[in-house]
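Fold it.
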Amino acid sequence: MLQKSDDIKSDHILLYQTHSPFARKALVFALECGLSDRIDVIHQETSPTHRNDRVFNANPLGKVPVLILPDGMTLFDSMVICDYLDRLHRGRKLIPTKGRKRWHTLRLHALAQGMCDAGVLYRWETNRRPVGLRYPVLAEGQKTKLIETFDYLETELDPKTPVTIGHIALATGLDWIAFRDLVDFRTGRPALAKWYEDFCARPSMAQTQFSGQTHDHPTP
């Protein structure tokens, strides 16, 4: 997945999943900060119906991403991992520490996070849950959240703003929605579509493209 320099030793481990927008957010963040050489990325299959003991041993919630630090401490939740990574590099911080820039960044991150949460629930009710157990009203409610978010971003997203964790969360979230073919966000939203295409052209996104399918039960 990532090309590492032979003369730099990785001292962190990222428990990852190649089809998780939350895990990809953490990895794209690391790449944008120039920290990929310090991280070994290990894919782990998880789902609410598929127990992964290695992940549970690192995170009692059984979810990725999980960052294992050099001293063995584990960090989980993508935002916590990104906050940690932002303190390791000497470049421009991707999580502003003060002023309106911080609140704009955190608000965009919250919007992107909520968008992904709605997308996950929508996918459960339209694809993953057994047909007889699906709840169409809930699916429609989650779809509405997605559409309202896309419409908001079409008018509020500033393409000139320097990259922050909010933009990374948004790009990886939108790309996951496209990867799962959930709800169209391009049609009728030219500004959002262009921003998305431009961001996906960044090396950090090109190196971390989504792949694979969710396994709700252990493979034989």
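The longest helix spans residues 99-128.
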